[in-house]
Design goal:
The chain has 70 residues and is α+β, with helices and mostly antiparallel strands. Helices cover 41% and strands 16% of the residues. The longest helix has 11 residues.
């Protein structure tokens, strides 16, 4: 389970920048991912955006898709 993994990673490595990659698009899951420590939530059908999102996360700047369904 990705949310459980995110919580575990954040508890051991609080500085980790977690991006959730999923096929499920729901506001509840996005909020749960953020609560678990994810900094971005990316739909699998938006993989073309992943490079930009990863770069934004690494630069610690808000990405256009960070926390959204894309």
């Amino acid at each position: 389970d990705g949310l459980k993994a995110a919580r575990s990673i954040r508890s051991k490595f609080p500085q980790a920048r977690i991006i959730i990659l999923t096929q499920h698009d729901s506001p509840e899951l996005r909020e749960a991912a953020r609560a678990a420590g994810a900094v971005a939530y990316v739909m699998k059908d938006h993989l073309r955006d992943l490079r930009v999102i990863i770069s934004s996360v690494l630069l610690d700047s808000p990405s256009p898709n960070s926390g959204s369904s894309s």
